[in-house]
Amino acid sequence: MFSLKTMMASKATKQTSAAASKIKNKLLNTSSFFKVSLKTNNKALALALQAQRKRSSQLEMEVMHLQKQVDALCFELHLVFLLQLLILNNFRSNALQHLDMVADLFSDSVRISLNTYLQFLWHIDIFVTFW
């Protein structure tokens, strides 16, 4: 039938073929495992990226909201400052006006006292000259 050489060659070929098949199956299995692993990992990364983008968007909206609040509070603070400045200017103006009125009263009273004194002296002078 077959010669010994042919059988040996055939057996060696079968062994080589079987080893190649094992390696090929192992590579395919390993390759598919890596593919599944990479696919799962990519999906997890995509979900994490999506969640991160959503969180980033929420934080940006919160920052904008807080910035609007800061602007509103700065505006309100400026209005309060202007109102206080207006009140202080009003107090200052009223105080100056009242001081002028007091000065007028004092100068009038000094004038009246001086006039009264001069009249008194004049009367004395008349009285003295009369005597």
Automatic annotation (TrEMBL):
One of its GO terms (biological process) is meiotic sister chromatid cohesion. It is found in: Chromosome, Centromere. Keywords: Cell cycle, Cell division, Centromere, Chromosome, Chromosome partition, Coiled coil. One of its GO terms (cellular component) is kinetochore. InterPro entries: Shugoshin1/2 (IPR038889). Belongs to the shugoshin family. This is Shugoshin C-terminal domain-containing protein. It comes from Oreochromis niloticus.
